[in-house]
Amino acid sequence: MNLRNFYRQLLDRFGPRNWWPGDTPEEVIVGAILTQNTNWINVEKAIAHLRVEGALDFRKLSSMNKNRVAELIRPAGYFNQKAMKLAIVSDFFLKNPPGKMSGLPITDAREKLLSLWGVGEETADSILLYALDFPILVVDAYTRRIFHRHGLWGADIPYGDMQKRLMKELKGDTVFYNDFHAQIVELGKNHCRKSRPSCADCPVPCPASAAK
DNA sequence: CGCCAGGGCCTCA
DNA sequence: TGAGGCCATGGC
Length: 212
Known about the structure:
Structural class: mainly alpha
Distance between the termini: 17 Å
Shape: globular
Number of strands: 0
Mean pLDDT: 95
Radius of gyration: 18 Å
Order of helices and strands: HHHHHHHHHHHH
Number of helices: 12
Largest sheet: none
Strand content: under 5%
């Protein structure tokens, strides 16, 4: 399969996605934590609560009472863990502002993020790409499932393997990786669902032999 | 109803 | 280093 062509099919169907859903780097970073294993609809409710409270703000998030933060982000699930994660990440970005992080070599920036409790590979890469404008491809459960169904790899391929393989073939820049991942999410949510996938109107139908 | 969602950490071998 | 358990709400 030609991945550039695959992307073209998605772009033709869905149009440019203009991601990430969030305006400021702060909002993108908060969203990246809150959306861990959670439906975006629920994340939006949590972000709305934070905004009303004036807490969509690193200073506030790093100093506010954890129980209060947990209460505000309750709809996003795992609220106790995520309240802690928001405090840790906020504290980090107060000391390492996004503008300064963007100037580091990407490997250094990634390592710093991964060293934080609560920030794994996907969250780190989402922040690197969507908040700090680094050219790195975010992959996720949708990516794993979609390309597994297309016969590209096994169902349990590790995160890093997916990322290496796709980036090696795509060789994109920040703008391209931004939209590629956004298109994958659109496809994964609305067509290539885990259960009851909507294959009839899929913009990138699986080869019959590989479909599952 | 039960399943699922744009993960990540801890434990235990 | 890998599998399994845990965290938790709300939509469908």
